Amino acid sequence: MAISLKAPSLPGTRECSSLFLNGFVTRRPVNFNRKSRPSFDATSFSVQRFGLRARTIVRSALETAKSENPEASVRLVSLVGKGEVSPLKSTSWLEVMLHTATRLKWVDEEYEMLVFDDEILQSNDQRVTNLKQELNQTDILVVVAVSNPESVKWIQTNSKSINNIICFESSPDLMNRLGGADFGSGNKDKQATEVVKTVGDAWERRNSDDIRFCLLVIINAYIRPVPVLQNLRSKGFSTLSCMVKNCGPQILNCLLDPNCRKALQCLNQCSPVDQVCSYRCIASYESPHFEAFSLCVLQKHNCLGLDAKIPEKPYVPPMTTFRGKELCHETAEDLFVGWLGDLDWSWRVVAGQNPAYDQFPCQYQLFYRGKGKSSFWYEPVFQVRTLEGKLVCRRRRYSVKRGKVPATFRFSVLDNGVVSNEFWTIVDVSDDLSWGLFHYNGAARVAGQSYTGAVLVTPDGSYPVEKERERLQCALEKCGIKEWELFAVDNCSCENPPLGIPQGSRLHSVISIKEQDSVHRIEM
């Protein structure tokens, strides 16, 4: 029986819920009726984050015959239930999958996914003929929220030649197929089991990044290698040897420290590609010993042998003018500085796109110029609800350098022993500084994680007024982001945040902020 996904809530606060991935319900532990579906314990596929129990999660497609032509195009077809609604702010599944097709292109232009709703299956015109032709040459069929009996029968009849079929939220009569073999009762294929486990965990996270990731995992395992997924594979004994040889004292200190030990145990339960899980572990249990451990094992010696690069896509054009004047570097920096000086912060985050980094409660942004002539700093302050239920404040410090083009910047931060580098773009800021949209592409190279995101900011943390909606949607479109992808930030209970900037810091260079009659006004 299909178990519907609940409406999404903020990561870290949602209840544990089940996911219907045809043939599996991913809940720990999992136990199925042996008459109809296979049974396995999902906990048996846990991953040792730091290589202490090295194991491959998804075998590389380099081992398959199809890897002989890594430049070949990858063709996917997605069939979606007519009018079916997703848990992503009640957006239709058709719109979600169409957007996913666009986002696949950011990974590789050769990934082509055609999306149809199942109403087309009941027609008798040329469209059905064309669809059948597409299915005959597709690499992966993705079925989402299809339960109409006639559609189910049509798919069963016309998908027999497709080697890879994955079904979500659909009729239990539809069977997953991976590598040409039906994945159902009696199937003991280890690779297929691991793929389904990885895909199921990602789907359950309920965000657009992980919907795309589900498809990339299948491409990587059965079609051809996906470079951005190279870190799915463990490095083996060399990892442990590197750690012991170079970082013995740091390992010992970490294991003797309760918080550091909890951080490692927590990370051990996370998939290497689950940035939401990983960063929440780090933010929950950060300590000097954990920072020293990560600095040695990852940053200095890269014992995991990981590598990640800042994504080149999506390319987001920066704003070029402000109040009718061409934007220069000084004004762009002032837009970041924002309300600092008139308020105790530059901006407050209203919503963000990245589920790992943009969803924390009570986010304050502090942008300011340092004492040096060209120094510029960014310090975010945010709350974290730890895994033990405590509410704590965290603060980071980024060095900011100007990009080649005004309104573009390069950020760098040492976060718990690991360096992250990011490319930020000021996409748009309203003339009265009532709201702004900032986009970033980033990577923690030695942690093997690359990411993108965007934050919508205002002076008080409330959503922009309705009259700004059209301009805001235009700005989001430049980022390739739909409004339904944004996570709302909880800006309640934000008492006594640890704000303040270093003495001697400088603020605005071109823009001055004055307060008149209790109304904030900006003057150039």
From TrEMBL:
<dbReference type="GO" id="GO:0046422">
    <property type="term" value="F:violaxanthin de-epoxidase activity"/>
</dbReference>
<feature type="domain" description="VDE lipocalin">
    <location>
        <begin position="241"/>
        <end position="491"/>
    </location>
</feature>
<dbReference type="InterPro" id="IPR044682">
    <property type="entry name" value="VDE"/>
</dbReference>
<dbReference type="GO" id="GO:0010028">
    <property type="term" value="P:xanthophyll cycle"/>
</dbReference>
<protein>
    <recommendedName>
        <fullName>VDE lipocalin domain-containing protein</fullName>
    </recommendedName>
</protein>
<dbReference type="Pfam" id="PF07137">
    <property type="entry name" value="VDE"/>
</dbReference>
<dbReference type="InterPro" id="IPR012674">
    <property type="entry name" value="Calycin"/>
</dbReference>
<dbReference type="InterPro" id="IPR010788">
    <property type="entry name" value="VDE_dom"/>
</dbReference>
